[in-house]
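Bit of a strange request maybe. I'm writing a small parser for structure token strings and I need a real example to test against, not something I typed by hand. Could someone generate the tokens for this chain?
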Amino acid sequence: MNALSRLAAITKGKANDPPRLLIYGTEGIGKSTLAANAPNPVFVPTEDGLGQIDCAKFPVAVTFEEFMGNLQGLLDEEHDFSSVVVDSADWLERLIHDRTCKDSNVASIELAAGGYGKGYTAAMNYWRDVLGLLDSLQKRGMAVILLAHAQVEKFDDPETQSYDRYSPRLHKKTSGPLVNEWCDAVLFATRKFRVSKDGDGKNARAIAAPIGKGGGERVLRCVGGPSCVAKNRYGMPDEIPLSWASVAEFMV
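Reply from user aminoacidic:
Good idea to test on real output. This should exercise your parser:
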């Protein structure tokens, strides 16, 4: 390609591609319900937890090959689904680790690919295959929604002391950074609460009290900070209500 043709390939303007979202939080917070309200969704489950949600879904994939076959079917066959929901990314990671162990004929990801943590690196190849298929579905016009459970991880901040924060339950040195960077938004589903102290001095206790009804108003945190991993490319504020309507408002 010569210089002129390269310059001719330059484009301007905002892309209107469907979103690639990762929504994570504690069990029962409402992640699957939110995703079920996305435009005409189909779930590709890797765990059993959709029994009480009225949605289109594949059978639960119990191997990595089954999961990839379901995604490939959405790519190859005619359908009118507008969103694909992976429920959940952390259970998908278990299937990926099982496949990686099978490659090395070992029982533990710690021993795969020669051990010493190399199994997690080898598993990244399968993660890239997954994200590549999801990219193809996005190009077909489908929104991509990954759901995940939350974990508390220790974050070593070079500018201050180490602290705990919420993050998606993915390997924090390999798949976690890869998936987070790939997504257009990483949103943390949680409840609003306030913390107060009971007592004085050494006997003081921190007490968390919910804000709002039903154990606390459910929200999505859209901007990262000391308490959680989050980001977005849509200009979302720090916090929005936990609903698809609230998310979709920023997708236009």
